[in-house]
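Human: Here is a favour to ask of a fellow structure person. Comparing notes only helps if you start from a blank page. I am asking you to supply a protein in sequence and structure-token form. Write it directly below this note and I will take it from there.

Assistant:
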Amino acid sequence: MQFSTLQFELRDNIAYVTLNRPDRLNALNLPMIEDLRAAAALIDADAELRAVLLTGAGRGFCSGADLAGEDFTQDAHLTQGQLIGARLREHFNPMVEAWQRLRIPVVVAVNGVAAGAGMSLALIGDIVLAARSATFLQLFAPKLGLIPDLGSTFHLPRMLGTARAKGLTLLGEPLSAADAVSWGLIWACVDDPDLAQQAQLIARRLASGPTQAFRRIKAIFDAQPADTLSEQLALEAIAQTALGDTADFAEGVLAFRSKRAPKFAGR
């Protein structure tokens, strides 16, 4: 399938997805949102895929929503606020949910700025790496008089705590890749020339791993935590019951007993 705003490639059980509007710092317009939604559907429907790598073309990951385009031009039948709300409900939010529900691990490589909705998009990743020169920005309130969207109000307090989440969103100060690691927002910060290679290595590592276990890990970590330890232990037992009957578990046990590395097939 061809996309107008993405580079999309399937190789070695990995989907490589690149935001491809470098002249606009990969700003999110409606065609890109719909391309991302369609890409997620293709990925989810392909049982052979075992990992995804998402990054941006050019010098930035994503500068946020393309407010300079025509997608948010005043509609004669809607107020500006009603138009923004409609765009979120009908296009942006379904895309975020489609990526969040992907059954396989998503690696995000942040090259350059991830601002506003672009930062929200980066946080969709299960494992997020950033180039050392990359910055994360929450400019919704300081620059536009809006609140963060595309899931940032969900992710930031859970990942950083309320104090840091409020500081980032109220002040809009840039967060460096190194600080994003120390704050627990992303997995790793790497030197700029190494970003693509390191992200690909992680994607390949995940693609050769126990896919069913990864799927369960994503689901249990993304769900609301249980109220008690006993309830969480019960959820773990349900997952282990299912995973104990997979071919990957059988291979893992055999490899352990044979003192060799396992060769997971993802089943």
User: Anything to note?
Assistant: The mean pLDDT is 94. The two ends are 26 Å apart (CA to CA). DSSP finds eleven helices and nine strands in the chain. Residues 80-100 form the longest helix (21 residues).
